[in-house]
Design a protein that fits this description.
Number of strands: 22
Helix content: 40-55%
CATH superfamily of the largest domain: Ribonuclease H-like superfamily/Ribonuclease H
Number of domains: 4
Strand order of the largest sheet: 14-15-16-17-18-19
Largest sheet: 6 strands, antiparallel
CATH architecture of the largest domain: 2-Layer Sandwich
Number of helices: 26
Length: 699
């Protein structure tokens, strides 16, 4: 195994353009490459391209105690031989190293290529253990003897940032003292040592999961094609619409609020008009005791403002809120991100997916964040996109209305993703897969049969929501029973993971449904009475996990899953064979309910980016983790099958898979058949997927 790390500098920001375009930019250059062999304590080797172009002032030379510049060292022949022999190459966040190696080391310096199958990523291995990805974090979380050199990181950032020319050195763009370059080399050496320590501490990806990670890398290098003309036109139209609405916002507020970013001024102006600013209950959990409470906080977020808009009597306030909501749509930012990250050679955006973004293994979005694209696509998305391309701003205002331009641009964001010339997009989405997964792990045969019946008769006059409502109310509910079906939908989507009535009120509110406390209590009670097998699974899986924590090293089986504590982790073995991991598990007192509960170190549920030592979990949450993980494994294995069958995957969003195929090749029916194939470990799982074929992405 070769462990390697690059330090680079460039005139472009990697955050703005991504690793792929960063590595191909002419200004990007190598400062140093460090590498070492095997997971033991072998020395770290250093190579740099030579920095002969550095010009030193005499005072700098004196301080540096040297009159010599760097000379380019010879090429590392042993490294080349090991690469040609097929030795594996591991990096922390390997996508960046892969790009640099491909576009700089191979293209500029003529080094041998590292094949796709040779790459490994320790950051992805850390994510698979539900650890934080960043090297400094994973070293700290695991308590390793080798830690990231954070002071060296500061020196590196100083050296790699473009600086303004000075009077003494008018030609240089870079901070370039020799001692700082040497400091960065030392920093890079320590990075390699830390990465090797992570490699020794964690089990690497292997088997099917390694194949899935390799497919993820292939998809990210393959990228998505963007309709450049549409993105550019949308930016142009959006800028005119924003300017017009900002003028209106300024006028209607008598110049008190001039931009949509002035949140405090907007709240103050609303109060001055006698309009109540909406209040949001923010859940606060004490990091030490785990006790939760709620605080009221004024908010200008879209959901809260839209909810109160109909009850606002003051006309200027109502108009200001409408303008505020329209201006705070992120459509223009998305189009700008697409253009910034678009490869000018093929109009493709790469690095759109993040492997193991959730602790359950699900993918997240990266770069242009395709997972966050609006779902409200127009039925005739091709026609709307054609209108945007054909007409100017004034014409579009005439056709769609001045106030609707930003909503229009937001609604066709998905349509900016298109197939390559001579190709089509094929997409299929799994139907209610989490509800199916919950019934499957719990052995709820009645609910599984309902799904089987529904799949056998797609044109039936009932669906899973009416079926759930019928079970809850003890009588037949049809699609005509709007209220009962709505409650069945809320229950199906919200109650499966032990959600209580208070949480269900907020959950329903997010779906645009208003519930009273009494209604919510009734829904939860009726659903639990009807789905008692799922409730039993919550309590059983909680007991099994707790028993494993109390008896480290003992295997505890429950239904389709197994628990065991190994080292610092509680592992849950899924039916697929993959492990869910929980760091530093322990049984502590739950301050809220005054009873023992399972705790671990991880991300707080109420603040996804907050890493805390006392995350509390329980049967419903464990069930959610298990179900989402096994549903992800079903989808990931389908992606592997589709790729092998000649359907190149370009994207996965939640429960949807998107491929790009040449016109006249492949078929939607075959694609759906591949996705509907049951894995060996879940031959009785009721899988159903449906989709579409078109040149433009949609929902």
């Amino acid at each position: 195994m070769i462990f390697g790390d690059f330090e680079t500098r460039s005139e472009v920001s990697i955050k703005d353009v991504g690793s792929y375009l960063y590595s191909r930019h002419p200004s990007t250059e190598i400062l140093v490459l460090c590498w070492s062999y095997s997971r033991d304590y072998n020395p770290v080797h250093v190579w740099h391209p030579g920095i002969e172009d550095l010009s030193y002032l005499q005072a700098q030379r004196k301080r540096d105690r040297t009159h010599s510049n760097f000379e380019r060292p010879p090429d590392p022949l042993e490294l080349f031989e090991r690469i040609d022999a097929g030795e594996l190459f591991e990096a922390h966040g390997a996508h960046f190293e892969r790009c640099i190696w491909r576009w700089i080391m191979v293209e500029r310096y003529g080094w041998p290529a590292v094949q796709d199958w040779q790459w490994r990523c320790s950051a992805s291995a850390a994510a698979a253990f539900a650890l934080r990805r960043k090297l400094e974090h994973v070293c700290k979380d695991l308590g390793l003897g080798q830690q990231k050199d954070m002071e060296g990181h500061k020196a590196m950032m100083k050296l790699t940032k473009v600086r303004k020319p000075t009077r003494g050195d008018p030609d240089s763009k870079w901070h370039q003292k020799r001692k700082d370059v040497l400091r960065v080399m030392k920093y890079c050496v320590q990075d390699v040592r830390s990465e090797k320590a992570v490699g020794r501490a964690l089990r690497p990806l292997s088997g099917t999961e390694l194949e899935i990670w390799q497919l993820d890398q292939t998809i990210n290098f393959r990228g998505l094609r963007i309709d450049r003309a549409l993105a550019m036109k949308a930016l142009e139209v959006g800028a005119l619409a924003e300017a017009a609405m900002r003028d209106q916002l300024s006028a209607v507020t008598y110049f008190a609020v001039e931009k949509e970013t002035h949140r405090e001024k907007f709240k103050e102006w609303l109060r001055s008009r006698g309009t109540e600013v909406p209040v949001k209950l923010k859940k606060i959990i004490d990091a030490d005791t785990g006790v939760e409470h709620f605080e009221e906080k004024e908010t200008t977020e879209g959901k809260s403002l839209r909810k109160m808009l109909g009850s606002v009597e003051d006309q200027p306030s109502q108009r200001a809120i409408e303008l505020w909501l329209a201006l705070n749509k992120t459509s223009t930012k998305k189009y700008r991100a697409m253009i910034n990250r678009m490869d000018p050679e093929d109009d493709r955006v790469r690095e759109t997916m993040r492997y193991h973004a959730a602790t359950t293994g699900r993918w997240g979005g990266a770069g242009i964040q395709p997972h966050n694209l609006p779902r409200n696509c127009p039925d005739d998305i091709d026609g709307v996109c054609a209108d945007v391309l054909r007409y100017d701003y004034d014409d579009l205002c005439m056709l769609y209305g001045h106030d609707n331009i930003m909503t229009l641009l937001s609604s066709i964001l998905r349509g900016a993703i298109i197939a390559a010339p001579g190709h089509d997009l094929l997409a299929a989405d799994y139907s209610a897969i989490e509800a199916r997964g919950t019934a499957w792990v719990a052995g709820d045969k009645e609910m599984l049969q309902a799904f089987a019946d529904l799949d056998a008769d797609p044109k039936a006059d009932w669906d899973i929501y009416t079926w759930t409502a019928s079970q809850m109310y003890g009588r037949r509910i049809t699609k005509a029973d709007k209220l009962e079906r709505g409650n069945g939908k809320i229950a199906t989507l919200g109650c499966g993971y032990q959600m209580g009535w208070r949480a269900l009120v907020n959950y329903a509110d997010g779906m645009g449904i208003e519930l009273t406390d009494e209604q919510s209590e009734t829904i939860v009670r009726d659903w639990r009475d009807a789905r008692w097998r799922i409730c039993e699974f919550w309590y059983g899986v909680d007991r099994a996990a707790s028993r494993a924590v109390r008896n480290p090293g003992k295997l505890v089986e429950f239904g389709h899953v197994r628990f065991k504590v190994l080292g610092r982790f509680l592992h849950c073995r899924l039916p697929s064979g993959r492990l869910l991991s929980y760091l530093d598990p322990r049984i502590d007192l739950d301050e809220k309910f005054k009873r023992p509960a399972l705790h671990f170190t991880g991300y707080a549920t109420y603040a996804p980016n907050l890493w805390i030592p006392n995350c509390k979990t329980y049967g419903g949450k464990l069930t959610e983790n298990i179900v989402q993980a096994l549903c992800r494994d079903i989808m990931a294995e389908a992606m592997l099958r589709a790729e092998r069958a000649g359907y190149p995957i370009i994207l996965t969003v939640h429960d949807e898979i998107v491929a790009e195929v040449p016109k006249g090749q492949g078929s939607l029916e075959e694609f759906k058949q591949i996705l509907n194939e049951r894995p060996k470990w879940a031959l009785d799982f009721p899988i159903a997927a449906d989709g579409w074929r078109a040149e433009r992405y949609r929902k």
